[in-house]
Design a protein that fits this description.
Elements: H1 28-41, E1 45-50, H2 56-66, E2 71-76, H3 86-93, H4 104-120, E3 124-129, H5 137-146, E4 157-163, H6 166-171, H7 177-182, E5 183-189, H8 194-207, H9 218-228, H10 232-248, H11 256-264, H12 267-304, H13 318-331, H14 344-351, H15 362-382, E6 388-395, H16 398-409, E7 417-424, E8 427-437, H17 440-448, H18 452-455, E9 460-463, H19 464-472
Parallel strand pairs: 1-4, 1-5, 2-3, 3-4
Antiparallel strand pairs: 6-8, 6-9, 7-8
Length: about 475
Amino acid sequence: MYYAHFGLKEPPFKITPNTEVFYSGGKRGAVLDALIYAIINGEGIVKVVGEVGSGKTMLCRMLQTMLPEKIESIYLANPSVAPEDILHAIAFELQLKLPKNADRLKVMQVLQSHLLARHAAGKQVVIFVEEAQGMPIATLEEIRLLSNLETKHDKLLQIVLFGQPELDENLNQTQIRQLRERITHSFNLAPLEPKEIGEYLIFRLRAAGYFGPHLFTKSAVNAIASSAQGLVRRVNILADKALLAAFAENLYQVTPKQVRAAIKDSEFGLEQSKLSTKKSQILMWAGLLLIGLALGYLTSYLLQKPPATDFRTSSFKASDSVNSTKLTQGLTAKPAEKPVIKDAVVANAVSSVPAAPTTISNNMSEDILSRRLSITSSWLESQPPTTVSIQLMGANSDAQLTADLINLSQKIELDNIYVFRTKVNNQPFLTVLYGSFANRLEATQALKKLPVEIQKNRPQLRTIAGIRQEIQQTP
C-alpha cells in the first residue's frame, strides 16, 4: 500500500524469513560463520539460543543455503515428538524406506545404514531441530543417542538445536546432563542494540529499492528500539505499521508519533503497557517506603540532637569584628572589566569574519528542481555511455525532492547535481545523481570524499548507459 509513496519496489519488513535480506549486523554474521565452522568440523551437538523473534529461523535458513554441497540437511519443525516417534520422523525427512510396522531397533538399523552409505560417498548429514525447548526430556535423550552413531574417526550425524532460553533450563536438569556434556558449541542471539536497529532499518529499506535518506528519525528509531527490545520480528512489525501510519498522514519520514501509533496497534505493545503500569506501581510504593524511612530517620536524628550554642553568651572582640569586615571586603569580587581591542588590525579582522551561510532564496527554491531536470536532460545526451555518476537518493514527490535538493546544495556543489524522472511501481519517481566520472575508480574516490551524512545513505554507482536504459523503459 505505501510502497510507491516511499519509492519502494517490494515490502521492506516482511516477517517471513527471506535469506536474500539476511542482516549480518548484531553479530548475526559472526554467529553464522561460527555455525558453519562448527557443523563442518565439529563432532558434538551444537546449540543456538535466542528469544522469540530474535532471528533463529532466519539463521537456520541461511545455514541451509550456505553449507557446502557435501552436507545434506534435514529440518524438524515439530518439536513435540514423542521419544518413540523421533526416529520415524527423522527417517521420514531422509526419505528412507521402512518396512511396515518397523520397531525402534529396525528404524535405527536402517538409519545407520543410510548414514554409513552417505559417509562412504563423502557426504555429511545434519539435523536442524527448531523450537527444541518444546521437546520432551525423553525425546532430547533420544536425540543424544543419535549422536553416538559414528565411525572410527567421524560422527555420522550432526545435530543443531535451536531454542528459546527455556532450552537451557531443560538442559540444566540432572536427568539430561549426558546430553549437556555432548554440546561442544553454544551460541546466543542477543537482542539488537539501538544503533544496530537503525542500521537494520535502512538495510532493509535499501534491499527493498529505497535510495533516499533514512525514513526513520533518530527519535523514532529509539522508540522502536525501546518497544521492540532488540527483537528483529518486533522491529519488522513496528516499522511496517509506522510506515503505514506515515503514509496515511502523507508524510515522507517516520517520527515517534507514528511509532507510538504502531506500538498501540501491536499485541506486544499492550503487554508492555501492562508491564509498564505494574512497574510504575511498584516504583511508586517503593518511593513511598523510602520517604517513610527517610522521615523516620530525620525525626530520630532531630530528637537526639544537642541544643544549639547561645552566641549571646560567647565573647566576641571588637578587633575580631574589624578584622572580619576587612577580610570580607578583601574577598568581595570586583566586576570584570570589558576587554578593549587596542590593535586596529585585530579589530578589523574580527569585524570581517563571514557570517553563517544564508538560506537559498525563495526564487531559487521554486525553480531549483525544474532547472536541474533541464540541465540533466542536456547532460545525459552529451555524456559517453561509459561515464559513471553517483546515485545519491530518490523521492516520488516534487516537493520532497525540492527540499532535499536545497539541503544537498548546502553540502555539495549544485552544478554537479543532476535529476531525472522515471516510474517505480507505476508511480512517478525522481532520482538524484552527483558528478561525471570517466570510470568507477574515479567515482569511488569521489564518493569517499562526500560528507558523512550523504555517505550514510549508501550511494550507488551508475553508468550513463544504464540510466538512459532506465529512462527509456519508463512507460
